[in-house]
Design goal:
Elements (H helix, E strand, L loop, with lengths): L4 H19 L7 H19 L10 H7 L3
Length: 69
């Protein structure tokens, strides 16, 4: 969204986490291996397990379970 300075901050925070937790110090043997690692990081670790400070240091799964509908 143009004009939303917070969008860039969120993406920079995500890429910082990605680089620190997955990329740095890892050697990938080709694009296929890199894509598989990225998919596993985003879909399994980042979205299911990783604690997020913005939601009270809960994982997204734990946060969703705690919200009363």
């Amino acid at each position: 969204r143009p004009g939303q300075c917070t969008d860039n901050a969120r993406m920079e925070s995500f890429f910082h986490s990605l680089k620190a937790e997955l990329i740095r110090g890892t050697v990938f043997n080709g694009v296929k291996t890199l894509r598989k690692a990225l998919s596993r990081y985003i879909n399994k670790f980042y979205n299911e397990c990783r604690l997020h400070s913005g939601i009270g240091y809960l994982s997204p799964i734990e946060y969703e379970r705690s919200v009363v509908i």
